Each structure stands twice: as structure tokens, then as C-alpha cells.
Amino acid sequence: MLEATSSLQAKDHCQVFPSTLQGKQLTCTNVNSTFFLEFNIALNKTHWLKCQSCNLSTLNEESFNIPLRNNIIFLELTQSGIRVLRKFAFKKFPLLRYLSLRNNTIDTIDRMCFSGLKKLIHLDLSRNFIKYLPSNLFNDLENLDILNMTKNHVFHIQTEAFAGLLHLKYLYLNYNYLQKLEENAFKHLTNLKILYLENNDIIEIHPNAFVGLRNLNFLYMNNNSISYLVQYNFKGLTSLIDLQLRFNKLREIQTSSFNGLINIKSLQLGDNEISFVKPYGFIGLETLEILELVRNKFTFIDYFAYFSHMTNLRYLWLTKNNINNITFYYKYETQDSLLVLDVSDNNLTSFNYQLLFNYVPNIKEISVANNPWRCDFFIYMYNFFDEKNVSVCTTDSCDANFTKTYVDDICPVLHTTEVDLEESYDFALDRTSSRYGSSICSLSGVIFTFLYRTLVI
């Protein structure tokens, strides 16, 4: 318990704990603003002050009656009913490095309320009711590294709101009410690395919204209402590695929407309504390695028109669309980078797998489960890729032992006539052609030979 003090309230509501930082942590619960006005507890070895479930309402420059020379570097005022932050509210904490105001009811913030906190690194304002961010709100926080504003009611950010945050690296604005990203909204955040804008109501992105974010590596905009992108919508993000736009309302990819992302590695566009990619929609993505288009509304894929510019593409996920046709052409140069293609859960009955392999000769895995394959086609496709050491996957684990079960599922009726496995599938005529003449696929011989080859391998 606390050292002797004249404050009965302190004895009843406060405790001192050893800190992991070799100092003391003072934790108070269920106290009101009067407690800090009459505060007389020695803080010479205390660097962590925590008030939880208190009743503080308004914080101003007179709220804390503590000596200016103190060692407090961690201040936590959580679940304490704070609604208003007046200017100079924290001027008694010049050494503060971590400030948490999480889970209060803050809806009013004066400019200069954080004035004097030049050493602050982490500011947590999450789970409050802040509606807008005025200009120069954080102007004095020149060393701030993390700003967390998750789960507020922010619907507007003034152009100069982030002025002064020269060293900010992590900005959390997820779970707010933003509808539009204005021009130059983030222009002062020249060292920002990660920007979270998930779970807002964003409909529109100004073409110059991301100007200034030249060091941004990760941009997360999942779960919004974005229905379209314009040309060069992400220009200026020359260091971006990962862009996520899942669970939006995108219907098509506009020309040059992603042009300028010269270092992008991963682009995730799943769970939208995309059915079409305009010419040069993915132009400028030469460094892209992962493209995720799961659960969209594609019915047709023109592989070369959509993806041929991506010379470093390694993983392409087209799972759970309505694709019934994938086309390939001879005229394009090979795409040596692609390793994994996933077309599971679509409406494919066949496609030119031989031409696919000619174009992507280094492919290692093709996931094909849950398509209405013609059983004869599937057997030929499997054996073709088997000879090329390409795994045809029917499960997430790509376990070859499950392939027989998959064949049984799509070919439940076994025929008795044997078939020559050296027959080739004629895509031009959409029928089976053989050096011995045409014949209908007889699955007993096919499956027997298929199992034999699988066991031998």
C-alpha cells in the first residue's frame, strides 16, 4: 500500500506496484477530479500514473496538482468519463512518453490541449466520440510515433490536422465515419509507414488524397464503400508494399488505377463486385507478386489483357467467382514468375491448360476444386500436369491423396471401356481425339491408370 499520507481517499483508492521499468506504478480507481486537485502523494520514484474507472469529466491546465518536476512518463486515464480536453491539459507532464485516454467519452478537443508534450511517442485516443480533427491539433507532438484513433466518430479531417507530426509512423483511423478522403489530408505525414482506414464509410478518394506519403509501406482500406477508383488514385505512394481494398463495392478496375505503385508486392481486392478490368487496368504493377481477387463477380478472364504486364506475379487467387472461361493466346511472351494459380469454386468445365503451361512454364500449383469439370477433361488435365511436375490441388493442403476422392465425386458413374491415356484433348473441337480414333471417356480405365501412376509416383 501507499506510504503514509494525509489523504484518506488515496489510501482507499490508490496502490503502488513495482513496474517492469524498475520504478513505481501508482494506480488509482474510482476517484474524481477533486482527488487530483488535492493530490499530495510523493511521486519522486513513480513514473507510471494510472487512473481507471474514475470520474474526471473535463481536463484543463489546473486538473493535476502535482509538481512540474516529476518523473511520469506513462499516463493512463482510461474509462474515466473524460469528455472535454482543454488547452494545456497535460502541461504538468513534460517527460510524458505514453498517454492513453482510451475508452472515455471525449467529444471536444481544444487546439493546444497536447501542448508541451514534445517527448510523447504514443497517443491512444481510441474508443471515444471525437467527430472531427481540426487544424494543428497535434502540432506540438514532434516526436509522436503512434497515433491511435480507432473507434471514434471522425467524419472530417481538416487539411492541417496532422501538421507537426514529422516522425509519425503508425496512424489508426479504423472504425470511424469517414466518407471522403480529402485532398492533401495526409500531406504532413512524410514518415508514416502504416495507415489503417478500415471499417469506415469511405465512398470517394480524392486523386491527391495520399500526396506526401512517400514512405508509406502498408495501406489498409478494407470494409468501406468504395465503388470506383480513378487514374493514378494512389500516386505518390512510391514505397507502398501492401494495399488492401477488400470488402468494398468496386465493380470494375479503371485504366491506370494503380499506376505509380512502383514497389507494390501485394494487392488484395477480394470481396468486391468486380466483373471487368478495363484496358491497362493493372498497368504499372511490374513489381506485384500477390494478386487476390477472391469472391468477386468475374465470369470471364482474359489472362493476357488483365495480367500479362505483371512480370513478377507469383500468386494469383481467383477463387469463388463465377468464371466459366479463361482465355490464353500464343502471341505473348512467357510469364516466368507465376507459381500458384487458384481457380477453385468457379464454373469452369474446361480451359486450355496446355497453352496455360506454355505461357507460365514455372507454375507449381493449380487449385481447381469445386468446378463442374467434365470428368474426361479433368483426367487429361491431371495427367498432363503430372508429367510436368505441377500439382493439381483439390484441397487447401494440396494433398495428392485426396485427388481420387475428388475424381469419384465428379465422375460417379464408371464406364467399362478402356481409354488410351496418350490421347490429347482437342480444345479447338472440344472433343477427345486419339491416334486410334474418337472415343468417349471410359473412366474405369482412366481411373485405374490414374491411380496406378499416382501410386508409382
Automatic annotation (TrEMBL):
GO cellular component: extracellular matrix; extracellular space
Keyword annotations from UniProtKB, A to Z: Leucine-rich repeat, Repeat, Signal
Organism in which the protein naturally occurs: Exocentrus adspersus
Signal in keyword set: yes
PANTHER family named among the record's database cross-references: FISH-LIPS, ISOFORM E, SLIT RELATED LEUCINE-RICH REPEAT NEURONAL PROTEIN
Listed SUPFAM superfamilies: L domain-like (SSF52058)
Keyword Acyltransferase (UniProt): no
InterPro entries per UniProt: Dev_Immune_Receptor (IPR050328), Leu-rich_rpt (IPR001611), Leu-rich_rpt_typical-subtyp (IPR003591), LRR_dom_sf (IPR032675)
The protein, known as: Uncharacterized protein
Transmembrane segments: none
UniProt cross-references to PROSITE patterns, sorted A to Z: LRR
